[in-house]
């Protein structure tokens, strides 16, 4: 009879642990998914901002006799612009390239309508994402225009402001959902742990009544919480990256190339899983340690 009772208790304990691990894994999977979306949304936002280019034009006055001197001057200006703080990437566009681009955009295959090299050479500049901010774009343009040799700087400021505002709005919504999922993770994991500790409330109180110290009672529960939190986190991460790998392979894009982003996300998910599990265990166990025996029947 005692053996059957022990087997029943072991099965119930195993079932309880499995339920807690599955709950932790599911919640952390959703939390990690929001983290991945947030990371990639930020990277994609930066990528779009880098596509909003600024054009810095050299003087239109051009004398073929001074071509060597002008080419040397433009090369020096190009190198200087590449070193400017707001500049992410710069591309030099010669007069010949500008003419070819103009003919292509107009659908013209002949040089009959163009004088030779009527378009000035220029530098196409992709700004760093933080300088696409409407509050900083004017500062960036002034820095570029101050470079000796640059005659004019043009950009579509209205488009930049619209894109920046829309991307910022989207990122705020994603961040808001991420915070919401974090709160849900705390609540759901806490409820799972409380149910598990509730099933052991009589064991906790019995240990206390026979003289066991609170630290001694808490220790095995905390160790178990760390193990369950770690297992749940690992399962959730395996499911997360398995689905993410399948998704990115289907669309042919790896999204974020910086592995440090994934590394910190893994640490965050594991840390959150273990922290919430341990904290919920301590709070739930402490509650029964402070309660009276009669309260155990009505908790």
Describe the protein.
It is a multi-pass membrane protein. The protein has 299 residues and is α+β, with helices and mostly antiparallel strands. It has helices at residues 2-50, 67-82, 95-106, 134-145, 157-198, 201-209, 214-251, 259-290; strands at residues 53-58, 87-93, 122-127, 150-154. The protein is built from eight helices and four strands; from the N terminus they run H-E-H-E-H-E-H-E-H-H-H-H. Strands 2-3-1-4 form a four-stranded antiparallel beta sheet. The protein is rod-shaped, with a radius of gyration of 32 Å. The model has no long low-confidence stretch (mean pLDDT 77).
Detail the topology: elements first, then pairings.
Layout: H1 2-50, E1 53-58, H2 67-82, E2 87-93, H3 95-106, E3 122-127, H4 134-145, E4 150-154, H5 157-198, H6 201-209, H7 214-251, H8 259-290
Antiparallel strand pairs: 1-3, 1-4, 2-3
Sheet with the most strands, sense and barrel status: 4 strands, antiparallel
Mean of the pLDDT scores?
77
Helices and strands, in N-to-C order? Answer: HEHEHEHEHHHH
Kindly name the structural category. alpha+beta
């Amino acid at each position: 009879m005692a053996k059957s009772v022990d087997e029943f208790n072991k099965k119930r304990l195993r079932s309880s642990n499995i339920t807690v691990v599955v709950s932790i894994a599911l919640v952390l999977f959703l939390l990690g998914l929001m983290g991945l979306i947030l990371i990639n949304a930020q990277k994609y936002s930066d990528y779009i901002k880098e596509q909003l280019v600024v054009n810095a034009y050299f003087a239109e006055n051009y004398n073929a006799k001074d071509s060597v001197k002008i080419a040397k001057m433009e090369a020096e200006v190009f190198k200087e612009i590449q070193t400017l703080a707001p500049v992410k990437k710069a591309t030099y566009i010669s007069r010949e390239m500008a003419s070819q681009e103009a003919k292509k955009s107009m659908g013209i295959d002949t040089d009959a309508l163009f004088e030779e090299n009527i378009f000035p050479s220029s530098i196409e500049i992709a700004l760093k994402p933080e300088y696409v901010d409407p509050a900083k774009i004017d500062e960036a343009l002034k820095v570029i225009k101050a470079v000796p040799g640059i005659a004019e700087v043009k950009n579509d400021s209205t488009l930049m402001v619209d894109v920046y505002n829309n991307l910022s709005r989207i990122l705020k919504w994603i961040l808001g959902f991420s915070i919401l999922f974090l709160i849900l993770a705390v609540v759901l994991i806490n409820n799972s742990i409380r149910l598990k500790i509730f099933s052991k409330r009589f064991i906790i109180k019995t240990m206390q009544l026979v003289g066991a110290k609170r630290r001694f009672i808490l220790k095995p529960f905390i160790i178990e919480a760390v193990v369950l939190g770690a297992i749940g986190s690992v399962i959730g991460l395996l499911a997360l990256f398995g689905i993410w790998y399948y998704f990115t392979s289907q669309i042919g894009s790896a999204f974020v190339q910086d592995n440090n982003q994934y590394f910190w996300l893994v640490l965050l998910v594991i840390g959150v899983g273990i922290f919430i599990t341990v904290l919920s265990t301590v709070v739930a166990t402490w509650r029964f340690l402070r309660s009276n025996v009669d309260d155990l029947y009505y908790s």
